[in-house]
Amino acid sequence: MAEPSYKIESYPNADKPKMLFSAPYEFFPENLKNHLTENYDVTFAFNAPRDKVMELLPGTKIWFTGTCPPYFMDKEMIDASASLKIMATPSTGTNHLDVQHAESKKIEVISIKESPVIEQIYASSEFSFSLLLAMVNKVPFAVEQAKQGVWREKEHEFRSIELNGKTIGLIGYGRIGRKMARFSESFGMKILAYDPFKNIETSYVNEVDNLDDLLAQSDIVSLHLHLNDETKGMFDKTYFDKMKDGAYFLNTARGEIVDEQAMLDALQSGKLKAAAVDVISEEHEKDKLNHPVIQYAREHNNLLVTPHIAGCTVDSESKAAKDVIRQIEEYLAKN
What we know:
By secondary structure, the protein is α/β, with parallel strands linked by helices. Helices cover 35% and strands 15% of the residues. The protein has helices at residues 30-39, 50-56, 75-78, 99-104, 123-136, 139-147, 155-158, 175-186, 211-217, 237-242, 260-269, 292-299, 314-334; strands at 9-11, 18-21, 41-44, 62-64, 86-88, 108-110, 167-171, 190-194, 205-207, 220-223, 247-251, 272-277, 303-305. Strands 9-8-7-10-11-12-13 form a seven-stranded parallel β-sheet, sandwiched between helices. A six-stranded mixed β-sheet has the order 1-3-2-4-5-6. Helix 8 links the parallel strand 7 and strand 8 (190-194). It starts with 8 loop residues before the first strand and ends with a helix.
């Protein structure tokens, strides 16, 4: 597979902090890009490969990272700049960088995970529900068949279900889980939610204290968790076995939360009717084509995969970038 195209744009500003900006920026409003070029010695390098980024890092004080780069920001990359003081990512997740090593070097790691701005971002929840609809209604399969001239003669393969009256189980009730509940309620669904860290008071949501109960009752199970040491690999074969026969599974959180082989086995056996994921494990690896999840999706119609684009809107990325810049400048003002 060919390397993605990239260009390097540098705006020298010798008396300003040196910033490497490897996140996308071409959709930024002009005033936001101008703010960066006027207040930082900034180099834009979105889509630059790892070796090029390594060349650009020395002397960098602030690294504004992409959220889904084709490399892991490891010890070697972090150590490439002795001046590095801030690593900032316009995302809630930080599994694309070695947080532990950064923090061991007293590098400030900035994200939007605890920022109020996340309540103003709707892209991930809107996309998650869209993906749910596409999965249940077999939209990608139907579109591809129509392109080949296939019409209602295959309607037995196109036939799906209504969401009205079905039960959705939300695992995690943060900002995306809450919005998913609101969308689900508007479709007339019964909503179960499990989150031991939240007191769920939404009138139309039934809070469950036992995850096993949610799995046994839900027609659709949807993951909305942060990836951490406790959730890594959490959703394994035992959880899939406890789900209803013929249930649907949605993951737009992080691929590493799920035992992907167990998911594929459940799809192959028919335990799961279908699954849809916007995330896979080891996303920083270049060889996505031979990833087991991608391979299965190429050969079967009951797994829908999208390339981690739930938050990929002009609106959400601009809001996140502005907030991260705000956090960077607050940190610089205090240190």
